[in-house]
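quick one before i forget lol
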Amino acid sequence: EICEQLIECTTKARLKVNECIASHDSPLKAVSKCHNETLHKQLKRLIEERDNYYEGCLRKKMPEAAAIDNAKKRAKCQKIVQKNPFKQNIQKSRRSMQRDRNINQQKQCYKDVKKMRIHCSLLAKCCSISKQ
């Protein structure tokens, strides 16, 4: 079912965000004048609450999910399901890229999250209960 895959997708995206945040917590943030730890924690908590609410709502309404009747839309949704948004990114090793490797890794992590969320939003269009 597409709705089950949507739940899996949102869970994976949330785990990837947590992975990005955890792997890139640097001592520079503690030194930075602009970094506000309490606001950062509040924002993270609100994002987690939103994601948990959305996933819980989808799980609760799962039995009410209707199948897609339109053949054209069903084919389109099958293509979305088959697409792999997590292709390996092969980067050229130019000297300028080597210099800022940490920053590039962090950016790449969040780009991957963005790809995952786009894929989830496409899946949401195919899940009848996500629109309610």
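fyi The chain has a mean pLDDT of 79.
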